[in-house]
Write a structure and sequence with these properties.
Residues 112-177 form the Smr domain. Keywords: Endonuclease, Hydrolase, Nuclease. GO terms for molecular function: endonuclease activity. The structure is a single chain. The chain is an alpha+beta fold. It has one domain (1-193): Ribosomal Protein S8, Chain: A, domain 1. 41% of the residues lie in helices and 12% in strands. The protein is built from six helices and five strands; from the N terminus they run ααβαβαβαββα. It has helices at 3-14, 36-53, 79-86, 103-120, 141-152, 180-190, and strands spanning 71-73, 94-97, 124-128, 156-161, 171-176. Strands 1-4-5-3-2 form a five-stranded mixed beta sheet, sandwiched between helices. Helix 4 (103-120) packs parallel to helix 5. The chain is elongated, with a radius of gyration of 30 Å. It starts with a helix and ends with a helix.
């Protein structure tokens, strides 16, 4: 017999066969809400991804003392602008409290807040990092890292320890550079017609 004859005889034998009706015996996983364990695992993965992507150092830091002033100014920032920041003369548009946060949470919160503020056009914010006299593994642990992280961020052009009424040695004023959209709006606003 040839293969065509085999195929034909097979089809003839199968002509009266009806397919079985199979009832669904599986549960569609998308219709069930994720379990607590799945949700926590997903959140941990998302958090780790954000931590890995932000570029803020986790390595060695130069410790600062709990009662030290911290300050920084990029080249090109005018002295008058920096003096006004130092004296707390700028309106504080946003505030971030890092006290009582763990290292990873503080790092992630700082990065996300600075990034979001810059994108929204916020120029001045206050970061409350705390003095950290009793922090571990050394005093002023988070304060030391905030000092380093702010210097690593491109959007930050200056910062200085806050005045007493805004948190003193446990807080810092941060000045962000203008977002490109702000520069364009200012250019259009002040353009002579």
């Amino acid at each position: 017999m040839t293969s065509e004859a085999n195929d034909l005889s097979f089809y003839e034998e199968m002509a009266d066969v009806k397919p079985l009706v199979v009832k669904e015996k599986f549960i569609n996983s998308s219709s069930r809400p994720p379990s607590l364990a799945q949700t926590l695992k997903r959140q941990a993965i998302e958090k780790q991804t954000a931590l890995d992507d932000n570029g803020l150092s986790i390595e060695y830091v130069n410790p600062v003392a709990p009662l030290d002033f911290i300050s920084y100014k990029k080249d090109g920032v005018q002295e008058g602008v920096y003096k006004n920041l130092r004296l707390g003369k700028y309106h504080i548009d946003s505030r971030l409290v890092l006290k009582h946060l763990g290292f990873d949470d503080a790092r992630l919160s700082l990065y996300q807040t600075i990034t979001e503020c810059h994108e929204r056009g916020v120029r001045t914010l206050l970061i409350d990092h705390g003095i950290g006299k009793n922090s571990q593994p050394f005093p002023a642990f988070i304060k030391s890292y905030v000092n380093q992280w702010l210097q690593e961020m491109d959007a930050v052009i200056a910062f200085h320890t806050a005045l007493k009424q805004h948190g003193g040695l446990g807080a810092v004023y941060v000045l962000l550079k203008k977002h490109p959209n702000q520069k364009l709006l200012n250019r259009e606003k002040h353009q002579k017609r």
